[in-house]
Amino acid sequence: MVKIIPIFPAAGRRAFLTLPIAFTLAGCGFKLRQPPHFNFNTIRLAMPGTALMQQISRELTVTRQVKVVSDPAQAQVTLISPGEQRENSILSLDVNGNVLEYELRLRFSFRVTGPDGRDLIAQTEIVRRMNQSYNDTAALSKASEAEMLYQSMQDDIAQQVMRRLAIIRLDAPASAAQ
Questions:
Q1: Residue 40: CB atoms within 10 Å
Q2: Is the pTM of this model over 0.70?
Q3: Taking CA atoms, which of 89, 92, 154, 165 is between 20 and 30 Å from 135?
Q4: For 39, what's the count of Cα atoms within 13 Å in the CB-facing half-sphere?
Q5: Cα(36)–Cα(14) distance, integer angstroms
Q6: How far apart are CA 175 and CA 169, in angstroms?
């Protein structure tokens, strides 16, 4: 009886078969999203201590490019916001008048100023909307689902703010299109 010895062991075979995929992705220019590059070193967050403010502060700190400061004299850039607003409205009702679906909204308005008080990003509002089905018999679980949806919207808004902060040029005049 002839014993066949595999050229590649199972683990090596998988690695060998995934190489063409890796080379194809690298060849087409694919690369993972990189953290944004900021053109300033310090920022002051002039907004209430909400969860969104804490998330923006955390994401700025994680980049290790920007230091969040509380003293206006030390800040190259100041993000000014009254905070976020959570809203919900009824989208649909059944024939008995019970709510079937809500629209959840998270609004965040802000502006960014330089050390001289000049607007680097004019007053901007970001609004995220999500629909949530509703059932009276599962009110507690729907409340926690709504909280998770608001958290998802908050994550998205924080990422949008980060991308907008990354386009700031301290030496360029403010643009109304931002």
A1: 19
A2: yes
A3: 154
A4: 12
A5: 34
A6: 10
